[in-house]
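Homework help board

Subject: predicted structure for assignment chain

Our instructor gave us this sequence and asked us to write out the predicted structure in token form, then describe one feature. I got the tokens but I'm not sure how to describe them. Can anyone check?
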Amino acid sequence: MTYTRSFRAFVLAFLATALAACGGGGSGDGNTAPPPNTPPPPPPAFSNIPQSDAEASRFLTQATFGPTAAEIARLRQIGYSRWLDEQLNESTTPPTFVLPHLQKLVANGVLPEDLRPANRRNYWLWQAATAKDQLRMRMGFALSEIFVVSDREVADEVRTLNRIADYQDTLSRGAFGSYRELLDRVSRHPAMGYYLSHVGNRKADPTKNVTPDENYGREVMQLFSIGLVQRNKDFSPMLDGSGQPVPTYDEQIVSAMARVFTGWTYAGQTDAQFGRGNNDSYAPMECHPAFHDDQPKQIFRSIVISEGNNCTATLGKALDALAGHPNVAPFISRQLIQRFVTSNPSPAYIERVANTWLSSNGNLGQVIRAVLLDVEARVPPTQAGFGKGREPLIKIATIWRAFGARYVPPADGSIRFTFSNAGDLSASLSQESQRAPSVFNFFDPDYRLAAADGVQGIFAPEFQILSEATYVSALNQHEAVIWNYTGAAPTATTPAPVLDIGELVALAEARNHAGMVEKINVLLFYGTLSSASSQRMVTMLDQLAAANESASARARSLVLLALATPEFAVQR
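My token output:
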């Protein structure tokens, strides 16, 4: 079914408003601070117990893939701290992993060659919408946008399916642990080894015109740890005597780091097999001393690594140096704040989280607790630039969670949706699980909106993938996921999960259109829907009722319109 004429008119009105707010944009390197403004007064303290459903919903919008009525009620009973304690405790909230699901499908009789990346992507997205370990899944998703591996660049998408799934699980497994340990697991994972080409990396051999590959040696510094310029704890750049940012490394250091990552190949290979392709392996890569550069290597901060041909010891020293670099705390902390709370955290917010990083020795569980319980996260903002764009995949999961979506898997237990673009949502949403277009993710953390007179505006990473075309494409995708999939709990497999909009339908039948809007205001907007938007929604519902549209059509129209609003596009 397509949109009604009245509904389409209202969507177009919101579209014009939203795109006017989006504007253009350009990326930067993050070296220049946002336009100066008067620091706000210290925000007031907040209660550990949310004081309203809207307040609880706002926290859950930041910390999960979306609020549910049940989780709002529970959070108001137990408070933020206990909720975080439970989410961070693996025995209380067991983690969700993707690889065991794929292996179970094979045990259930599905042929390995019949599995596709869509099996992994759909299962992950459904778990994002339904699993109990919401914070771990959000953290794993955030880490996947920092330690990027993409299934766009694999030798064989079927045979490497388990490898990509295991990498995704590696990030979830390490979501609340030591950053240093996670960096080690990422560096030795064959998915990363293939993606950034240090699997089979050999020491230099001039007679054979062989030089070590510099790809991972560069990106592990630039993207995964220390960034391009030296930082203070509040992320402000350190400047030299000429007022220029101080680089963290140069080409000589990149060359030395490339030599660090020599001698590693797929598990189980002999020296004679070193570097041969292996699309099936997902075990950690193994060290082959014969192919490791055994000469001293001087890396950043004048650190010299001299472990001979012991590539394991060399790797350990290099990762110790990276994890111990003073840039890591503000560099990664700022990105985590951006992924969960706001694209433009204040320097003080970054420094507070960085201090937690340093005091906990990079414990990611303690860091994410500091991110979510910081006063700037918990007290509703007054600054216009506070907030972040909602990511496309999170929008889908949020709707499924808000309206208790239900899905009946086929007999083999697979989660394989068949709605439009279900196998690869990047075609319509510009985002899909472990499918970034490059190692630089779907968007740059330093992407900025353009301001007046060509001045760089506020940071807005998610807006890098937003344009008039992608906005409309996403709206059409939302219709494909929602319009025909609402109603009673399904008894057989459906192309998409089925939303339970019964409460909205009941309100629509009673012509309580204001009550319908208030219902979604708490679940989707944490009580912040503007009076103008609320009135527009009520007016739309009134007009649809006057046109004899059914209660169900009005409820569905309201959900789709909510997804199109500027207030839903930006999480504050």
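Reply (TA_rk): Your tokens look well-formed. For the description, you could write something like this. The CA atoms of residues 31 and 55 lie 34 Å apart. That's the kind of observation they're looking for.
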